[in-house]
Amino acid sequence: MVKGLYQDILVDHYKHSRNSGVIDPADFSSAQYNPSCGDRVSVTGLVSSDGVITDIRFQATGCVISVATASLLSEKVKGLTLADAALLDTPDILDLIGMSLGPTRLKCALLPLYALRDALHDYSAK
């Protein structure tokens, strides 16, 4: 794919976010804030008895990259086991968004992953 297509995908997910909202009550939840740019991402989700993420919702405010990544990540993790979702890392996020980023923009892209990781960690600790 060409860079312009990835940018189009990011803009589409920013303008028409998938899985936006809140699940209440949720099996897991977490929120992250990036003070350097003001981006905020929160996630809530449901887990089946066999450890599969059956639903996930997010709320995000901030730049195109953080909001679009939250949308893309929510699509990716729905249907994954908790163990598989917990293995997601920086290269997975860069694959999702389809481009490399400098350090500042990378923080924006990783914010949804950090929120997800915290939520899954708290859920597993229960």
Q: Kindly report how far apart the N and C termini lie.
A: 42 Å
Topology, number of strands: 3
Identify the CATH architecture. Answer: Alpha-Beta Complex
Largest sheet: 3 strands, antiparallel
Strand adjacency order, main sheet: 1-2-3
Mean pLDDT: 94
What is the CA-based Rg, rounded? 14 Å
> With helices defined by DSSP (H or I, 4 residues minimum), what is the helix count?
5
Share of helix among residues? 40-55%
What can you see in these coordinates?
The chain is an alpha+beta fold and 126 residues long. It has one domain (3-125): Sufe protein. Chain: A (Alpha-Beta Complex), CATH 3.90.1010. It is built from five helices and three strands; from the N terminus they run αβββαααα. It has a three-stranded antiparallel β-sheet with strand order 1-2-3, with helices on one face. Helix 1 packs across helix 2 and helix 2 packs parallel to helix 5 (103-125). The mean pLDDT is 94.
In short:
It contains 5 helices and 3 strands, in the order αβββαααα.
Break the fold down into its secondary structure elements and pairings.
Blueprint: H1 3-15, E1 28-34, E2 39-47, E3 53-61, H2 64-77, H3 82-86, H4 90-97, H5 103-125
Distinctive features:
single chain; 126 residues; Sufe protein. Chain: A; 3-stranded antiparallel beta sheet; 50% helix; 20% strand; globular
